[in-house]
Structure formats: C-alpha cells, structure tokens
Amino acid sequence: MTDSIARQQLLYVQDQASDDEIARQAELYGPLTDSVRELIEVALLTEVDDPEVRAALEHIESAKRLLRQRINPGPYGVRWGASGQKRAWGNAAAGLRNAVAPPLIVECDPDGRARVDFHLGSAYEGPAGLTHGGVSALVLDQVLGAAAEAAGAPGMTGTLTLRYRRPTPLGALHAEARIDRVEGVKTIVTGHLSGPDGVCVEAEGVFILPRWARGKDSAAVSDPA
Ligand SMILES: CCCCCCCCCCCCCC(=O)SCCNC(=O)CCNC(=O)[C@H](O)C(C)(C)COP(=O)(O)OP(=O)(O)OC[C@H]1O[C@@H](n2cnc3c(N)ncnc32)[C@H](O)[C@@H]1OP(=O)(O)O
What we know:
Bound molecules: tetradecanoyl-COA
CATH superfamily of the largest domain: Hotdog Thioesterase
Subcellular location: Cell projection, Ruffle membrane; Cytoplasm; Membrane
InterPro entries: HotDog_dom_sf, THEM4/THEM5_acyl-CoA_thioest, Thioestr_dom
Low-confidence stretches: 221-225
Largest sheet: 6 strands, antiparallel
EC number: 3.1.2.2
Family: Belongs to the THEM4/THEM5 thioesterase family.
Pfam families: 4HBT
C-alpha cells in the first residue's frame, strides 16, 4: 500500500460521537458555515465605500483570530458516530462545515436514485450570469456518487462524462441521478442537472470501489487493517 493511500484511509474515522453530540455540533457549526457562505456573496457584490470595506476586513480578521485559537490541521475527512451516522462535513459539494459547498442536501432512495433542489448564487459564476461548467461537474459528481452509495455500491469517480446541452443559469436548480447498472466493482450512474428551461447538463459516471475498500462494508473503511 502506498503512503498516500494509507494517509487517505486514516481520514475515514469512527469517532463514536453520540447522535446528541452530532446534533449539537450541527446546530453550532451549521449557522457559522451559512454565515461564511453569505459573507462570500456579500464580499463579492458589496458596493459600499472604501472605509466600510476596510472596517469589514478588520472584523473578518478578528473573527479568524478567534477561530484559529484551536484548529484541526485538516482536512476534515469522513467520520462515523456511535450509531453509524456519517459526517462528510468537509465535502466541497455537500459538507455542513464547508462554506464553499452550495450546499447540496441530497435525498436518496436505497434503489439507487438521488435528487436535490439547490441554489447557486453569484459565487458560482462562470460565463456572465451563468453557472461555471466545473461547478456543474461538481454537483453532478456528488449526486451521481450519492446514488451509487445509497444502493450500497459506492465508489470513487473513475470517469465522469458530461454533455452541456444548454447554458446553466444561476439561481434555483435541480439535479437527479439513478443507477444504470452494476458491473462487479463498477457502478454506472446517469443523471442530469436542470434549470427553469429544462435539462442543461447530462452526465454519466463510472464509480469504482477502490482496491483497499473491496471486501469491506462502508463503515469498515475506517479500519484499514
Ligand atoms: C466503502 C468504500 C467507500 C469508497 C469511497 C467512496 C467515496 C465517495 C465519495 C464521493 C465523492 C465524490 C466523488 C469524488 O470526488 S471521487 C475523487 C475523484 N476520483 C478519484 O480521485 C479516483 C482516482 N482513481 C482511483 O482511485 C482508482 O484509479 C479507481 C478507484 C478509480 C480505480 O481503481 P483501480 O485502478 O485499482 O481499478 P482496477 O484496476 O481494479 O479496475 C477495476 C475495473 O474498473 C475499470 N477502471 C479502472 N479505472 C477506470 C476509470 N478511471 N474509468 C472507468 N473504468 C475504470 C477497470 O478497467 C476494471 O474494469 P473491469 O476490467 O473489471 O471491467
């Protein structure tokens, strides 16, 4: 096993946190993340005068000093609590503690279907007024991967193929996915992202269970022995 794979496995952790403790943390950190996400949007769009910008910067620097007093060297990883509740709170698309995430709150069925309604603000702009194509890929990767995981056939993205059919606006969007077939360690999933005028991006993904995780259930990946 290479060092990088060993390091990756160490970030799948059973931390035995109780459901109450997880709820407490979600209640504490969720609003912090939402506020930072709004800050990104406001910092992008503000048109106040220079002194106000400088004053806001001082406040932000002060908040950073407060939060840095005790800090996880990172990244967050994936953690399971005592009841098996999973927290991928650092995830770039869906993480509860990641202000970069839109966030996606994906609904899944055990038969391998997943869907999400979400909102992309100005921070996700690519072409003027439109969603960045890489952000569409991020969303679809996450939703297709969630469909595979929901059906008990999870994997890392091996191949993600996208067809951008029409420009994707910013604002209220929808994405959905379903498993097409499972071939051994490979799960093939299809899906799309749509806006008010219909489907904007179609996707097909091949999700592959990594070698180190084969023969283990998902909760056991934290114990790579
Ligand atoms: C429970 C475990 C949980 C796991 C983690 C879930 C995380 C979910 C998080 C979701 C977060 C969001 C998602 C993310 O962001 S995931 C992050 C982006 N993805 C990656 O970083 C993946 C990097 N690559 C790898 O780790 C490995 O190469 C993988 C795991 C992909 C394959 O591994 P390996 O190379 O060892 O596989 P194998 O040699 O045993 O071949 C097996 C079969 O697969 C076929 N093949 C090989 N490569 C590809 C390819 N690229 N496309 C299509 N097919 C491919 C191959 O021909 C063979 O087919 P067949 O001959 O059997 O027909």
